[in-house]
């Protein structure tokens, strides 16, 4: 259940750009590819011949790339410091250079994994320990090697498969961007995962439907990728090869009578708007703690009156439009936003253009779903947690148990109390849920037979004479460039979004058409798409005609606005699975409440979603990043718990075999050749899958230089005792299957080649006597039991 996106906290409409309207996000990394090269070998060759000055330039470029991804240029992230030794953490410059190099290298080609071995090839050997630390941190935290390309399936790679027992299990509540990102990452970590989703579809508040005969992709929820630089959604788009369309800057405004707001006045009021926000910032600094109790709306209104700005009706309407745009950005009324903290996430804002995804954001959602086990129409009603794990009960009484749970339930649902936690959530977390705001943004989406508006723009705005309705259809998004149809979406924000939830869809549609047309004279044949009765439709039409608009945007210009083929009105506030659109900082709240909401409970219940991301709240990428964040925390908890359980139960679970048992097993091995002998834990030792133990006989002379150890025949009896010790035999052991043993037997007649095959190709770990008795105790006891069973079967029947 992920978040609807929003524009920056202080959206500005700039002059039209000369850059092309459509582009592929991979073009942003052309410069990266130019200096990193197309292949690792080319990178290595370039590093070897770079001058000190060239290498410094590359270091600076990589630092800028790391900065765009959200890393400080010359500092450690707080979560990095505990992972480093004291001396490195105190003087981290070399580590930071290595970290930035890894980030830049993967961003150059995010469709393929960046293994640690490849990084080691490009960095001097003296920094190998820094590569290990940086690569491990970046991969674990989801900064590299994540995504939806074929190189990153929702399954654990062979090298991270769980060892020694079943992996930890995790229940993920919600199949939005946060839940799916976390589930996919956890599966790659080797954990067992199941996602429970209340809806009949994935995506949560990211919802792409198809209208107009299933031809046009229409975004009813999160729609805009806000800032493409370093945005993980841009990475997913690149991995899938999906082009992005830059939302063009030009956004003309229209008066209610259809006249275009002149550029000079538009820019003048835009400056007034931003100046008011600047003064509001200075006001809160002077008020200090008193600003915690004041809303942004109250402060701006007092400043507006103080400076006597926007005094004419036209100026007031334009300023109201900017206020509505700000309410859209925050999914909340200005009267609710905290003066002290409403823009606390501005420093983290993603840079770059805002973009539409061709074909709709559902393409990302379905890619994230690939390979992830999801149960739909499982509405979670209760989450219980304790020392033994968690139990999640869904509507109808069905219960699911696991070691841990990840809750991605939207803030609006947490506020409603429809999901019960047992034990109850901590008071601090309940307080954060109550304090944070969760507002509304609604839409009227329409598919027309053809594009009748200006095809060279992606947005246009409409002013309203009534300040209380300033957010009603104040902004239109055109999706004809990416949707596959003539799609136009009208936005409803602020107080108007609350009222919109109660408006009949037919009335809402005709209000929109009234803004576009000269009047409401339109064909009522498309009422069938709105599913209302003939009588109610006639009543509604009577109400509409009685309150018709005097003019419209396109009608007075002689443009014919056709009836839409199909339309949809959203009701996110009435949706029981979200109860709103996205979060904001309300009066009395602060950014710290996002952190509190993200805190786990006893490392059993974890929380993700846009409302748990202090840096990127109210955005789609914020939801996705929170899922990656929690996947790392869950993995840490699982590993910590596994270590604790191993120490706690090692004696009970692994009884040490009797003294001499290991030696006795190899008195009569099941298979022997050269220096290798084998015993297997199976009644039928020829079973290729039978587990067993291998013993390799070695003597110290094999491991020492030959000089001084090749004695003549007549000198053997006179050799010193120390030289005789050199010829002592000793044993190494390994766990192995019968199939692997047969492969060794047939691979070569040379024991050294066999040993190399065992260690390198089969990746078998060699152990000494004590370690084998400890770690292989269960296997030794199993072999003893199998031996006894074989002897019983071999006894003659009496």
Q: Mind sketching the topology for me?
A:
Layout: E1 22-23, H1 30-36, H2 40-49, H3 52-69, H4 86-90, H5 93-108, H6 116-121, H7 128-140, E2 169-173, H8 177-188, E3 192-196, E4 208-211, E5 216-219, H9 232-240, E6 244-246, E7 253-254, H10 263-287, H11 296-307, H12 313-330, E8 355-357, H13 362-369, E9 374-375, E10 380-386, E11 389-394, E12 399-402, E13 404-407, H14 411-416, E14 420-422, H15 427-435, E15 437-439, E16 442-448, E17 459-462, E18 472-478, E19 486-492, H16 495-500, H17 505-516, H18 534-546, E20 566-569, E21 582-584, H19 592-598, E22 605-607, H20 620-653, H21 661-665, E23 671-673, E24 676-680, E25 691-699, H22 721-725, E26 729-737, H23 738-747, H24 751-761, H25 769-775, H26 777-794
Parallel strand pairs: 2-3, 2-13, 3-9, 7-17, 10-14, 13-22
Antiparallel strand pairs: 1-6, 4-5, 6-8, 10-11, 11-12, 15-21, 16-19, 16-20, 17-18, 18-19, 23-24, 24-25, 25-26
Helix pairs in contact: 1-5, 3-5, 5-7, 8-20, 10-11, 10-12, 15-19, 17-18, 23-24
Summarize this structure briefly:
With 798 residues, the chain is an alpha+beta fold.
Total strands: the figure is 26
Structural class given helices, strands, pairing?
alpha+beta
CATH architecture of the largest domain: Alpha-Beta Complex
Distance between the termini: 70 Å
């Amino acid at each position: 259940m992920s978040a609807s996106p929003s524009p920056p906290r202080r959206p500005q409409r700039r002059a039209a750009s000369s850059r092309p309207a459509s582009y592929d996000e991979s073009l942003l990394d052309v410069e990266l590819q130019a200096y990193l090269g197309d292949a690792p070998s080319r990178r290595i060759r370039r590093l070897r011949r770079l001058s000190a000055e060239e290498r410094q330039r590359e270091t600076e470029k990589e630092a800028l790339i790391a900065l765009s991804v959200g890393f400080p240029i010359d500092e450690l992230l707080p979560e990095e410091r505990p992972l480093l030794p004291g001396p490195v953490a105190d003087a981290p410059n070399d580590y930071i250079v290595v970290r930035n190099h890894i980030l830049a290298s993967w961003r150059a080609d995010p469709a393929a994994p960046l293994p640690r071995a490849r990084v080691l090839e490009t960095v001097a050997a003296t920094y190998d320990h820094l590569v290990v630390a940086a690569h491990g941190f970046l991969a674990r935290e989801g900064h590299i090697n994540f995504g939806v390309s074929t190189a990153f399936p929702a399954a654990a790679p062979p090298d991270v498969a769980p060892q020694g027992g079943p992996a930890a299990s995790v229940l993920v509540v919600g199949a939005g961007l946060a839940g799916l990102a976390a589930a996919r990452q956890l599966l790659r970590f080797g954990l067992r995962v199941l996602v429970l989703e209340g809806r009949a579809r994935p995506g949560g508040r990211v919802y792409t439907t198809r209208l107009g005969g299933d031809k046009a992709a229409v975004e009813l929820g999160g729609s805009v990728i806000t800032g493409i630089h370093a945005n993980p959604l841009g990475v997913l788009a690149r991995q899938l090869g999906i082009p992005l369309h830059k939302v063009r800057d030009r956004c003309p405004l229209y008066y209610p009578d259809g006249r275009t707001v002149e550029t000079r006045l538009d820019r003048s009021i835009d400056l007034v708007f931003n100046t008011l926000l600047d003064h509001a910032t200075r006001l809160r600094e002077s008020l200090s703690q008193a600003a915690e109790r004041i809303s942004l709306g109250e402060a701006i209104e007092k400043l507006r009156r103080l400076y006597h700005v926007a005094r004419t009706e036209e100026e007031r309407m334009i300023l109201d439009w900017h206020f509505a745009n700000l309410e859209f950005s925050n999914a909340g009324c200005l009267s609710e936003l905290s003066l002290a903290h409403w823009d606390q996430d501005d420093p983290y804002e993603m840079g770059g253009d805002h973009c539409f995804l061709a074909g709709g954001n559902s393409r990302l959602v379905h890619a994230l779903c690939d390979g992830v086990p999801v149960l739909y129409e499982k509405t979670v009603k209760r989450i219980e947690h304790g020392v033994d794990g968690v139990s999640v009960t869904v509507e109808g009484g069905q219960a699911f148990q696991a070691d841990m749970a990840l809750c991605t339930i939207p803030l609006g649902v947490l506020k409603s109390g429809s999901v019960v936690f047992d034990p109850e959530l901590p008071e601090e977390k309940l307080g954060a849920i109550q304090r944070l705001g969760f507002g509304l943004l609604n839409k009227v989406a329409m598919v027309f037979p053809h594009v009748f508006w200006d095809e060279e723009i992606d947005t246009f705005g409409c002013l309203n004479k009534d300040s209380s309705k300033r957010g009603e259809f104040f902004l239109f998004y055109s999706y004809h460039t990416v949707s596959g149809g003539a799609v136009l979406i009208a936005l409803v924000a602020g107080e108007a979004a609350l009222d919109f939830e109660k408006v009949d869809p037919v009335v809402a549609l005709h209000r929109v058409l009234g803004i576009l047309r000269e009047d409401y004279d339109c064909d009522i044949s498309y009422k069938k798409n709105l599913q209302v009765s003939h009588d109610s439709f006639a009543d509604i039409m009577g109400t509409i005609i009685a309150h018709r608009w005097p003019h419209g945007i396109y009608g007075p210009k002689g443009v014919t606005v056709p009836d839409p083929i199909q339309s949809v009105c959203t009701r996110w506030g009435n949706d029981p699975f979200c109860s709103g659109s996205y979060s904001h900082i309300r009066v009395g709240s602060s950014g710290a409440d996002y952190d509190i909401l993200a805190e786990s409970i006893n490392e059993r219940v974890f929380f993700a979603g846009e409302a748990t991301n202090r840096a990127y709240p109210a955005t789609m990428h914020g939801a996705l990043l929170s899922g990656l964040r929690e996947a790392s925390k869950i993995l840490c908890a699982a590993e910590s718990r596994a270590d604790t359980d191993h120490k706690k139960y090692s004696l009970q679970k692994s009884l040490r075999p009797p003294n001499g048992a290991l030696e006795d097993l190899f008195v009569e091995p099941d298979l022997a050749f050269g220096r290798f002998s084998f015993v297997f834990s199976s009644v039928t030792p020829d079973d290729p899958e039978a587990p067993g133990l291998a013993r390799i006989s070695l003597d110290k002379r094999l491991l020492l230089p030959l000089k001084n150890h090749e004695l003549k025949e007549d000198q053997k009896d006179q050799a010193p005792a120390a030289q005789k010790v050199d010829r002592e035999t000793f044993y190494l052991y390994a766990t192995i299957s019968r199939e692997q043993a047969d492969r060794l037997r047939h691979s070569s007649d040379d024991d050294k080649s066999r040993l190399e095959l065992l260690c390198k190709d089969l990746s078998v770990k060699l152990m000494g006597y004590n370690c084998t008795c400890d770690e292989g105790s269960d296997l030794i006891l199993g072999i003893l039991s199998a031996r006894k069973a074989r002897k019983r079967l071999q006894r003659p029947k009496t």
